[in-house]
Amino acid sequence: MKITQIIAIAGSLMLTSTVSIADGKTGYEGKCAACHGFGVAGAPKLGDAAAWKDRIAQGNDTLYDNAINGFTGATGVMPPKGGFTALSDDEIKAIVDYMVSQSQ
């Protein structure tokens, strides 16, 4: 395989990845539901208003920071970017926004 073919394939994969998580719902379903759908490692479940109430009260900046940089608390662990470090900060913020909107 020629280097130009490898570059074209890699570029295609990166574009596909970006497009498939263009909105928070798609990103959540594709990346975050595995933990936040079932409460793995103390993750607050999507739609569980009681679990999200105190987190939401801390404000978006704190939620974004914890999702992007990771967080270890009394109730669980959030790895940086949920372990999907290739996601951009803006993609993470869109996912957080979606999760908050579904959990109030």
Task: Please supply descriptive tags for the structure shown above.
5 helices, mainly alpha, two-stranded antiparallel sheet, Cytochrome Bc1 Complex, Chain D, domain 2, 2 strands
Any chance you could write out the topology, listing elements then pairs?
Blueprint: H1 3-20, H2 24-36, H3 49-57, H4 60-69, E1 71-72, E2 77-78, H5 89-101
Antiparallel strand pairs: 1-2
Produce a short descriptive summary.
This protein is mainly α and about 100 residues long. The chain has 5 helices and 2 strands; from the N terminus they run ααααββα.
> N-to-C SSE series?
HHHHEEH
- What is the CATH homology-level superfamily? Cytochrome c-like domain
What is the spatial order of strands in the main beta sheet? 1-2
* Main β-sheet description: 2 strands, antiparallel
First-to-last CA distance: 51 Å
What portion of the residues fall into strands of 2 or more residues?
A: under 5%
Helix content: 55-70%
Indicate the overall shape.
globular
CATH architecture: Orthogonal Bundle
What is the fold named in CATH at topology level? Cytochrome Bc1 Complex, Chain D, domain 2
Number of helices: 5
CATH class: Mainly Alpha
Whole-number total of structural domains? 1
Q: What's the number of extended β-strand segments?
A: 2
The parts where pLDDT drops under 50 for at least 5 residues are 4-21
Give the structural class.
mainly alpha
User: What is the overall pLDDT average?
Assistant: 85
Gyration radius, in Å: 15 Å
